[in-house]
Fold these 3 entries.
Entry 1:
Amino acid sequence: MSTILSLPDQSTARIPKRNYLTNENGILSWLLTGDHKRIAILYLISITFFFFIGGALAGLIRLELLTPQSDLMATDTYNKVFSMHGIIMVFLFLVPSVPATLGNFLIPIMVGAKDLAFPKINLLSWYLYLAGGGLTLWAMITGGVDTGWTFTTPLSTHYVNTNVVTTGLAIFIAGFSSIFTGLNFIVTIHRMRAPGMTWFKMPLFVWSHYAASILMVLGTPVLAITLVLVVLERTIGIGIFDPAKGGDPILFQHLFWFYSHPAVYIMILPGMGVISEVISTFARKRVFGYSAVAFSSVAIAVFGFFVWEHHMFIMGVSNYSTLVFSLLTMLVAVPSAIKIFNWAFTLYKGSITFETPMLYAFGFMGLFTIGGLTGVFLGSSGTDIHLTETYFIVAHFHFVMVGGMLMAFLSGIHFWWPKMTGRMYPEKVSQLAAVITFIGFNFTFFPQFLLGMLGMPRRYAAYPPEFQVLNVFSTAGASILGVGYLLPMIYLVWSLKYGKIAGDNPWQATGLEWQIQSPPLTQNFIEIPVVTQDAYDYEWLERQKEHEVTQLG
Amino acid sequence: MDHISPVIWQFLVKWLTDFAVIPPEASKIAPQVDALLVFMTLVSLVGLTLVALLVTTFSILYRRERNPVATQIEGSTLLEATWTIIPLGLFLVMFVWGSVLYFRIYTPPPNAMNIYVVGKQWMWKAEHPGGQHEINSLHVPIGQPVQLTLISQDVFHSFSLPAFRVKREAIPGRYTTVWFEATEVGTYHLFCSQYCGTSHSAMIGNVVVMTPDDYKKWLESSTSGVSLAQNGERLFASLSCTACHNGRPDARGPSLANVYGSKLTLSNGEHVQVDDEYLRQAILNPSAHITQGYAPIMPTYQGQISEEGIFSLVEYIKGLDSNYRIQQTTNTTSFSPAVTAKSAAEGTVKP
Amino acid sequence: MDSHAIALNHAEEPHHDHPAHLRHHFVSLEQQNETVSFGMWLFLLTEVMFFGGMFTAYLIYRNWYYPAFVAGSHTLSIVLGTVNTGVLITSSFTMAMGVWCAETKRQKGLIVSLVLTLILGFAFLGIKAVEYQEKFELHHVPGAHFDAMSFVHPKAEAGQPAEPGLPLDMARKTEVYFSLYFAMTGMHALHMIIGMALLSFMIVKAARGGYSHGNIAFVENFGLYWHFVDIVWIFLFPLLYLISRHQ
């Protein structure tokens, strides 16, 4: 296998003495930093922590489902476990995953700025995230919460006596962290682009983050107020969602899904941005139909706001409103299809190599295609009736969120690891991890499509015995998947000390972030670049290299 | 195969022999839903294969070894239009097809027989018009459209019948309906599929589909002796509904004979079709549902009647075609105390 | 790098004598100010969405339970509501004066305006507290102590005939009205309290001369926030106090 990897001579190469990691020392210099790159690292550490907690809970869920009876734990313990799994994975891992780590690190560099527009607010958002995460853990330790991550009223307001208020406040706080991140991105992209960096010269990573940020900024406040109302209803007993007092629990569903459907686009759009960068780099080719991919991100963001009711097709909403929302759901599927085909055709006449980020990206394309197409099963109202609230839903959103987003996250982490740390991850073992993850993932979640078709409802601690075999498959797959996730954790930490020195541009990529040293300086650029080239302009990169050679010669 | 544990072996054999990807098709709508599911699965498979083929073919043809220098291509409007329009067309077909099914599943035929279902933590209570009560099971005849009127008395539940491909949320505070026509005799799963608290996964039961003869026998053997409408009549009297809704010329409330299904004009000028939901609301929130020409004097019965009691009243009013019996009741000065006591036990909320 | 940017800035905008407050990651003060105010407007947009959830609920329930909303609304004191509207609009005026003083570098004027704004904020919250107190005594606060009977049998107020009573089922729906009343005005009051905390901070900083060197972006953007809170009230007042007052 050939590779595009070009590393400096390891015997002479050194990590640059001055970089954002060594600029200041001491724990306080991290805790009080305004540097977007350091905040990205802080985020990376904290979301990894929460990912593994959420993952451990997922392991418990799969273990319990090994047998049809609820024998490993009592049903209410199981309910708390899956609720916590959902809450942690959605609000503390998926929503901040790519934006808060890679986005934070890269967006200012990609648009040619020295930092995000509001460094202090960026740091504040990390503290809010920690406060939200800490409160969630506190709620978990002091008895947990068993409403599911959806907080359905009136169950959450009147019928459970677990820590709904604490968890609600935790998500409220974490929500503000997400709002501030989104706000920072939008302002930075609008106001801080380097000279010459027009909208259509921006990398697609920036476009997709822009689209996701719009959703964060406009959607999250609605979730915030909804949770406030739930908390008020639970504590003092206001009656906005309480049918006994004349309130309407369906209104809660509308308000909740008004955020929580766009939230899935908050989760997936940044991942799509990663895939655009990775595929272009390893095919050595500009992204096929740049503007179509850029606009499809914005289209997803816009349409994404008008499809929330498809979560409520069986909840007694008017048949005619179902018609409208089902149609809009079909429309929002189209931009995703466009992206998939554009990525596939980016490979056409490329010069392709298969390093780890590319393998994860291929994994993403396959799994996201399945996840997206099964979404159409659920968007079509007639089949939604049979499939909703079953394991089909569970499989569908895990294909999109885990198969899509997590694959993209890992792809991006490997891709930009040399930029973030200055060192390479070990190639062979990471390729193995990518393959293991892909296999384990399919083993875990594909049987769940079948379970859902057969009608097994989600959130069941015990189930009829005929569903056991498929559940055993799924649990077996989950243990493979677990290995696939532990491996990167281990070798990436290992590489911090023993990894090869990466040099400025190990992938020969075109982005602005690859034209500066790795790890970058605190102020990113020695001189603010003047941008003349398009995004993914490999010819420009060649000319730059020749230019350097002639100058040196 | 000695190295495979016999337990696992038996397990696999059993599973492979019973292997299924979809539950039995036991209702009239099931094959129609399955047809769309098959269509979607085929389209998905074609789509997935196409993507996989493109990616693998390009990966082989244009790998670095074979094609060291990439050819830069901006894009192609024609190609992009193709993969915008074709998926859009396919999705629209699925949308139309799915919507047709959706309307079919949620629009009961006029000749459907009605069964009332109350969901509560953590059981399903079915009330048949003949006075049969069931918990976590539902007996239905074959070849007869059955409409379910659902409500929850606490949290959201969801009445899921995978073998019939139907499902409907039971919501506190309002009726929802779903219908099906069973086509295969047998016993099928009934699930609560909306998470509803601690024993969510124990809120399961069976739907028993019977031949019309067996069903008749079952009805006779399991009746409580008082039909739903009879129970409703008793409640109607014991809650003193008869004082106003008696059809006399000087009555303070509108006559309820043949009111079900009719079009009413309300005091605020709105026109409404009287259905189950309207009757329920008129009992619980009367002041927002005043028939034109009457004064808003009806008291609310919220907190006084159970959901089953309201079902009884609704069923009674549905069948009410004359005020003769009401007037008979009000003419006799006293009720039989035994009947009043019994009806209180059947439908009102115990203190 | 920074010195270069500052030098550039000197050349372009000579009237800024001390651009020390130009943060290192901006190229020019102009860019910095534009960026900050863009961020503020975006933040206000999120606030619109935040209140939007409650306005949606209000819209639905007002349609469903109109008589209850009328009855609930009529228990609010239109006098106190109007006074509070006046107080808040005046505070917006003093805030705008504050921004003007900051722009024209009138330190004393700025401090006086901010203090006035703060006092008016306290006045608003004080009046609001009196109103809440009355609701509490009448058992109109939603929750366990809520009592709808005063809407079934309204008492005649001094000089005015009693309003017609509501049927019990509709009277109970006033709890939804009061839920929204407390949620909306409560969230508004919370925004006031946060605003007043920031105001106090600004007064201290202004007294130390912190806004005397042209670095007034904070004052300007706080002004936007304060006007936004004012505008929310301009919506709340008619929606909550003035339902069907012409009858």
Entry 2:
Amino acid sequence: MFVLPWLIGLAVFQLGPMIASLALSFTRYDLISSPVWAGTDNYARLAQDPKVARAIGNTVFYTVLHVPLAIVLALALALMLDRIGGRGAGVFRTIFYLPSMTPYVAVGVLFLFLLNGQAGMVNQFLALFGVEGPQWTTDPDWILPGIVLMSLWNLGSTTIILFAALRNVPAELSEAAMIDGAGSWARFLRITLPMISPALFFVLIINTIASLQMFDQVYAMFFGNQVTQQSSGDAALFYVVYLFQQAFQFLHMGYASALAWVLFLVIALITFVQWRVGGRLVHYEGGERA
Amino acid sequence: MTAPERSRGGAGRVFFLIMLAAASTIFLYPFVWLVVASLKPRAYTFADPFVPWPDPFAPESYVAVWQAAPMLAWLVNTLVVGLAAAASVTLSSAFVAFGFAYFRFPGRNLIFASVLGTMMLPAAVTLVPTYLIWNAAGLTGTQVPLWAGNLFGSAFYIFLLRQFLLGVPRYVFEAARVDGASYLDLFWRIALPLARPALIIAFVFELKASWFDLMKPLIYLQDPMLYTLPRGLKAIVDQFYQGGDPKWEIVLAAGVITTLPLILIFFLGQRYFVRGIATTGHR
């Protein structure tokens, strides 16, 4: 009886819609007239749509840059927090998390100003070193790097997860290794990294899934407004943005459903591969494996 | 905290403190810039970005944004939707989590696997059909779709609360059963009070998620009076950021108003945020 709400919710808002969107993906449906069976037309169209290719390219480019950079930087911060420990670590941790409490739309709006090519703070900072910064928000070649830069402001959760994992590494392990003559680099590679590998693996998966679904910041910055939309062209077209446009601006519900299912399959596949590969690399204390 | 490093003390620690302070400056300064720029006249928005106080000082932008847009209505909408979303997801998830933690019934593991499965399900997959459901119910154009989906529990919180309730010794429940308590009593009088920390984690996270949400308001709301703050901020940036007569100070002030309440909530519930992230990895 108690799990009934979940079962209803599962049927109405999860499984039902999943199956419905699979069914819709084989139709043409514009909300006004009833759905028309279209076979695999949507999928054929998707495979040839240059905008889909562009959106996939942008999304992959972003994910491949963002995920490793975010994890390495967050790990560096977490290691430093771990070294100083105590009350100080708590204060810094709070500071690092604050950007993650800023609504994505506000982040996008803020970086529209900070990344402004003529006068933004980022380029004025670069100018202090005699570097002429690029037109982050208007030059199609620099829009994605700018978005990656913005995304790296948001390391709070990843840092907290890795920091928590580091705190759980028993100090005796490191001490024992040091007595055996292991240098700090060897201790990091042989002890710290394996001990926190489950957490690293976890942040890899959640950051990848989130990156592939990037929407809010990018939409706030580059879409919905005629001027910004034209000046950015398709340089900021992320996959979920395109899906959103197809569904709710052009009312191509069938085509959008096909796009959604492709995304679902891709995310499931990537997660599965990461799981299989990661399962071999991750060290679980006590020998159990995922 | 590795003891050997600590005992080495001195130089290493100071170096890390300096590095962390530098990183903190990078993370904090965009906030400083936002607040300072929102308090300057338009002609000075981009001037002297490294001076951390407004010169010249011009707080009029906050009056202007109040006149340009129904900010108060948006703030109230955000709070109402956020509280409805957080309260409904917390209660329903706790209800379901109690079911998983206390009862043994056929198919339990399979159904619990479905909970874990939907944690992986990208929201984009259910976007269109969910819209069609609310459309068929005649509720598009209202705020109901922004929170009512939460009435059936949400995978992350069910998982979190179940883990928490599994930590409660079974004899606590059994003793109450012997004293004649009904299952609903067990839920209301024992499970809920005991799960308080986990309930607060779920509540603050959902409040944050609702406060962040841009896509659902974009899809479901047409009437600007019903907008939430993120949707309103999007409308403001579309109207005032570019074009013939940009009003940057209005955009920036709206950005501050959208962000500040959440930062305050964070400081109140900080403990729970940190614990929640460390245990569930919720972003």
Entry 3:
Amino acid sequence: MSLEEYKGVFIFAQQVDNVITPVALELLGKAKELASNLETKEVTAVLIGYQVEGLVDRLARYGADRVIVVDDPALKDYRTEPYTQALTAVIKEFKPEILLVGATAIGRDLGPRVSSRIHTGLTADCTKLDIGDFPLNNPTKFNLLLMTRPAFGGNTIATIACPDFRPQMATVRPGVMQKITPIEGAKAEVIKFDAGIIENDKYTQILEIIKEKKSVADISAAKILVSGGRGVGSPENFKILEDLAEVIGGTVSCSRAVVDSGWKPKDLQVGQTGQTVRPQIYFAIGISGAIQHVAGMEESDLIIAINKDENAPIFDVADIGIVGDLNKVVPALTKKIAADLAAKTQA
Amino acid sequence: MKVVVCVKQVPDTKGGVKFKPDGTLDRAAMLAIMNPDDKAGLEAALRLKDEYGAEVTVVTMGLPKAEAVLREAFAMGADKGILVTDRVLGGADTWATSSTIAGALRNLDYDLIITGRQAIDGDTAQVGPQISEHLGIPVISYAEDLKIEGDSVIVKRQFEDRYHIVKAKMPCLVTALSELNEPRYMTPGGIFDAFEKEITVWGRADLKDVEDSNLGLKGSPTQIAKASDKVAKGKGTVYTPDSDEEGAEIVFGILKDKHFI
């Protein structure tokens, strides 16, 4: 493979039910920034689906200079094989230097399958992407994609390069990269590409689509936990935590005192006798921070504690502590996030 | 019916994480367990054994000490265990790992291959789909439920906001979520059997249709530029705002800065 033939930053513009998944717009923002450090400044979005051409302008507003559209009835709902055929064909034809894919349930299935078919490297769940040289000391390869990701349960951070294969592929964790401010009236060059989608024995059949959020809250898998303690005051008052969880996409959990009082089921208990959790954000609301509780949550990436008692031990482990009345601070926060979301949806 | 389950011995990430000088993980220095998603995959296979008399073969790749997860699988009820181990396979990324495992699986008869969705050490979720691609069979990732119907498997496949009920003709590969089931415990009889049973050990020479250039550190397209322990957290900041509104504003600002909203 002649590496020089591969040019430009491409992103997989995931859509579901003809709606662009937000991470695709975040990837465009990052792609633009990466491309500004490379010879080829053009950013290309690869849009795969059925009757999806109407989404092109939205991609253009968020930074796509060019959109390659693969449109086929077989691509209506996500299935691994036809999407792999589509994306692989685009890579072979257009030879991107870099290909970014959102680390969604779709992207984390499609990415590995495509990288294997192409024979290139793929770095999963990146939280940081830069252009740089490799190896870091005495570099011999220049302007590579340096992909940084947490690993080993978040205990470590690794920066990874793919020096000898193209495209350099990464899946990128949703919510980390920044969208650009949309450019009104922006237009992208549109290329309709026939990827030669042909049904083969690797095809699966979708019998049914069930749209629902997961029914049982699994607090150990939650990315954001809104956890309440005795300070919440009553089972009814957990409503304010549920409201916050709703707007921020989190799950409600609790301390042992809450379970012992019969306010919440044991499944939701964090701590030594409950579950050990390690979310990206842990809200400790009205939780004093007994050592047994802290043992179950101290590894969380970001701990935000709200408590009226400034001497509560929870403030010793919190990254951010707010001394205040949870009954006022929490609803005020919920309101701000909701307003922010509403503003974004309009954009 | 023949079911192959791929399992990985992983460091228990609750303990410390250690590195070798080349930046790759020093697995020998850490406590080891069977990866949780893989265990759910094994349980799913054992249920097929209970229901249909499926033969369950467990395959693992790793250091010789990874035989411990095969013993555990025997104690739970697995029929056969294969350990793929060879010095030349070390330092593999997901491409080289999946090439290796596919090379081992080509020696076996299978209707269904089950892997865990992802391992708790790497968290990539890549090896399962990559194995399926090397073998040229369909994959269904993120299985939350699984049943057999004639020559097909029907899987409840999880997405963020929905499920697909997906049917694939066997042979195929399914990646299992921990939500799939509650793995059974080892039985006393099983534990006894576990140490009687023979483990098959395969090295490089036993891998079928794989080039040397696709194995180990040398066969890995991705290379580690830098790896480091996460910096220990210092004490955070405690604010005593003048008003509750200001308190909410501080938290909002931080969530915004960190791109959570």
